């Protein structure tokens, strides 16, 4: 690991200003992804701005009937909160489907949203990777791509967004709140937060340089059966091959988003009108533009079957 300097600012705006004034500075909270990346020298920050002391660790009701989740709420605490368990079951289930108990104790809400891809070529510094080193090429395109994206990818990068929590937040229509170095605040719908790679796969999100996430707001609860189903290569501590976050009502209407298939949580709202007809009409529309590789075409059928299982679960 390369040496770096460290500071603990007093307010969110001070933290953003500290990152803004130091070239190649990074925020650190739980550190569950960043420290791994630093040890591998994939990330080499010169300065770390520790945001753990900023008090952004509350879950509070909003005047609209929803909840405002502080950026530093630990994943374990969010999944265990009685309001989340009662009214946002899809979110609680998605969080406990991710990582391990120890990691969830440490990982934060904002950090979970910002975790980087788990494409194996991204982590292997002997391989070309446009996301790690822009312009170097993509080792996965002609390599092993079983885990990687079937939709939303580009010729530059076919990596998936690896998280579970954000897939549930996408189906809940969550909004991300930020502050910048001048104290300016901004709200970003989760649907606009994670970027598709295009020809700039090194940029994962629409956050501006030095902008700090302060909270995630959940709208008022959506009635229906909340389901999160995750299919993976082993029963725990593995990323999704395919996951489904769904809220399904008795009349057959509902919402659904998919994880493990794209560079961001993948939701096509127009397809949700077909939920009452079964899984296939929905996944045919959701994946109409899919371009799977020879290794991962199985994900299309797996997504249909995972959604079918969720629909059966809701009926039961
Ligand atoms: Fe890098 Fe993306 Fe290619 Fe993986 S898929 S090697 S992250 S450019």
Automatic annotation (TrEMBL):
A Pfam family matched in the record: FAD_binding_5
Keywords: FAD, Flavoprotein
Record has Transferase as a keyword: no
Source domain of life: Bacteria
InterPro entries linked to this entry: CO_DH_flav_C, CO_DH_flav_C_dom_sf, Diverse_Substr_Oxidored, FAD-bd_PCMH, FAD-bd_PCMH-like_sf, FAD-bd_PCMH_sub1, FAD-bd_PCMH_sub2, Mopterin_DH_FAD-bd
The FAD-binding PCMH-type domain, residue ranges: 1-223
Keyword Flavoprotein found: yes
Protein name per Swiss-Prot or TrEMBL: Molybdopterin dehydrogenase
Species of the source: Methylobacterium radiotolerans
């Amino acid at each position: 690991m390369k040496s770096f300097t460290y500071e603990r600012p007093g307010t969110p705006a001070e933290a953003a200003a500290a990152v803004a004034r130091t070239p190649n500075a990074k925020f650190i909270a739980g550190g569950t992804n960043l420290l791994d990346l630093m040890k591998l020298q994939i990330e080499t920050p010169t300065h770390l701005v520790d945001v753990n002391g900023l008090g952004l660790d509350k879950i509070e009701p909003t005047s609209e009937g929803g909840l405002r989740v502080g950026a530093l709420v630990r994943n374990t605490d969010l999944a265990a909160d009685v309001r989340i368990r009662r009214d946002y079951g899809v979110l609680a289930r998605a969080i406990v489907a991710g990582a391990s108990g120890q990691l969830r104790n440490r990982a934060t809400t904002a950090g979970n949203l910002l975790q980087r891809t788990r494409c194996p070529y991204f982590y292997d510094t002997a391989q070309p990777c446009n996301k790690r080193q822009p312009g170097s090429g993509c080792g996965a395109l002609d390599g092993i791509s079983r885990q990687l994206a079937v939709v939303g990818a580009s010729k530059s990068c076919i990596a998936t967004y690896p998280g579970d929590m954000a897939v549930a937040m996408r189906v809940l229509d969550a909004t991300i709140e930020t502050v910048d170095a001048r104290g300016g605040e901004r709200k970003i719908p989760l649907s606009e937060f994670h970027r598709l790679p295009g020809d700039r796969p090194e940029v994962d999100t629409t956050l501006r340089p030095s902008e700090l996430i302060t909270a995630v707001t959940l709208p008022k609860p959506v009635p229906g059966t909340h389901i999160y189903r995750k299919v993976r290569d082993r029963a725990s501590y593995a990323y999704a091959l395919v996951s489904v976050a769904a809220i399904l009502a008795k009349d057959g209407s509902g919402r659904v988003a998919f994880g493990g298939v794209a560079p961001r949580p993948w939701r096509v709202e127009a397809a949700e009108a077909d939920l009452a007809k079964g899984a296939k009409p929905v996944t045919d529309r959701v994946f109409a533009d899919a371009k799977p590789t020879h290794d991962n075409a199985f994900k299309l059928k797996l997504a249909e079957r995972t959604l079918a299982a969720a629909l059966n679960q809701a009926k039961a």
